């Protein structure tokens, strides 16, 4: 999180990152009641477009190549995924998926030290876009529909305990993997999903 006047802003992310390939490919955020008098404004980052912009700039082309070609660890602390994938990839359905959350890390081993600077550069690029891009306010009754594979999201901090915004996850036939049971977001159990 970063601090703005009177607020903390959570990191940009794709929902369900702790579930790896079982993360939803679509996300719906329904606002029952916004924060009053202000706060809780949202941002969206087209992460696929961000990787394209990085590739176009000679100063960041190496980072874009790393994002698309190097497997990394997408695990969350205490919830190892035990599978690795690039930050950006084309999934079997042909859709592009670009991921970001604050726990991305190189795979432990001989390349780890060399890869940390690139993982950190990816984080810095996402944070820069988050900090410099537009924010918008979801009003009561509005729903934000997000391609969770392509778009990162987040919100500004708020202090109003009456704010209500509901996150609804959805899986299409394009999803890499569809869970066959309810997901526990407090204690992700990837082994149970694979059964």
Task: Give a description of the structure.
The chain is α+β, with helices and mostly antiparallel strands and 195 residues long. 23% of the residues lie in helices and 24% in strands. It has 4 helices and 11 strands. The protein has a 3-stranded antiparallel sheet with strand order 9-3-11, with no helix packed on it. A hairpin with a 2-residue loop joins strand 1 and strand 2 (7-9). Helix 1 (47-56) crosses helix 2 (61-69).
- Helical amount: 10-25%
Sheet having the most strands: 3 strands, antiparallel
Work out the strand percent.
Answer: 15-25%
- Give the termini separation: 35 Å
**Rounded Rg:** 17 Å
Order of helices and strands: EEEEHHEEEEHEEEH
Coarse structural class: alpha+beta
Shape: globular
- Contiguous low-pLDDT stretches (5 residues minimum) are 1-7
Arithmetic mean of pLDDT: 91
How many helix segments? Answer: 4
Main sheet: strand order: 9-3-11
- β-strand number: 11
Short structural description:
With 195 residues, the protein is an alpha+beta fold. The chain is built from 4 helices and 11 strands.
List its salient traits.
about 200 residues, alpha+beta, three-stranded antiparallel beta sheet, two-stranded antiparallel ribbon, 4 helices, 11 strands, about 25% strand, disordered N terminus
Write the layout of secondary structure elements.
Layout (H helix, E strand, L loop, with lengths): L1 E3 L2 E3 L16 E8 L8 E5 H10 L4 H9 L2 E2 L10 E2 L2 E3 L5 E3 L13 H21 L10 E5 L3 E5 L8 E7 L19 H4 L2
Antiparallel strand pairs: 1-2, 3-9, 3-11, 4-10, 5-6, 7-8
Helix pairs in contact: 1-2
